[in-house]
């Protein structure tokens, strides 16, 4: 379902659990996410994976993680330093998943995909390109009008 002529980045997008939970609500958007994961364009920090596994919202998201193990990874030392810095910052209080998502995106200059306002605000404070799940679908060439 990729638009002809669309430019799909060769870098991964770092996902927070909020975006994963919202994407799984639409069957076609969920299939599209899986296709992007197959191309290496989905990166899920371990802390986000832990939120998904603990969450009550989505068996589909848990299955996605188990069937796409290359999408999830632990933080590097540099990302971990940034993660603790984000967690300690005054102002907006974020969960572990959003903080890890922002840290990985900031250290690697990757875009983040976050659907909760505090997380998107914090990402923008770190001068990150931050998409909502709907904006990510559009930016990566998804064409369904349902979402």
Molecular structure report:
The chain has one domain (13-139): 5'-nuclease (Rossmann fold, 3-Layer(aba) Sandwich), CATH 3.40.50.1010. Helices cover 53% and strands 9% of the residues. It contains eight helices and five strands; from the N terminus they run βααβααβααβαβα. It has helices at residues 17-23, 27-38, 46-54, 59-67, 77-88, 96-108, 117-125, 133-139, and strands at residues 13-15, 42-45, 72-73, 112-113, 130-131. The protein has a five-stranded parallel sheet. Helix 7 links the parallel strand 4 (112-113) and strand 5. It is globular, with a radius of gyration of 14 Å. Residues 1-8 have low confidence and may be disordered.
User: What's the CATH first level?
Assistant: Alpha Beta
Structural class assignment:
alpha/beta
Helicity, as a percent range: 40-55%
Task: Note the total helix count.
Answer: 8
End-to-end C-alpha gap: 14 Å
Q: How is the biggest beta sheet arranged?
A: 5 strands, parallel
Instruction: Give the averaged pLDDT, no decimals.
Output: 87
Question: How many structural units, i.e. domains?
Answer: 1
Strand fraction: 5-15%
Shape descriptor: globular
């Amino acid at each position: 379902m990729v638009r002809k002529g669309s430019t799909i980045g060769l870098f991964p997008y770092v996902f927070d659990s909020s975006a994963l939970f919202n994407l799984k609500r639409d069957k076609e958007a969920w299939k599209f996410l899986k296709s992007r994961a197959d191309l290496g364009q989905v990166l899920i920090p371990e802390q986000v994976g832990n939120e998904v596994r603990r969450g009550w919202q989505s068996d589909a998201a848990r299955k996605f993680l188990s069937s796409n193990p290359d999408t999830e990874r632990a933080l590097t030392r540099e990302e971990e330093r940034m993660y603790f810095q984000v967690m300690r910052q005054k102002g907006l209080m974020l969960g572990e998943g959003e903080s890890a998502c922002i840290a990985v995106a900031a250290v690697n200059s990757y875009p983040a995909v976050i659907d909760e306002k505090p997380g998107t605000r914090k990402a923008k404070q770190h001068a990150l390109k931050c998409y909502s799940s709907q904006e990510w679908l559009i930016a990566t060439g998804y064409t369904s009008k349902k979402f």
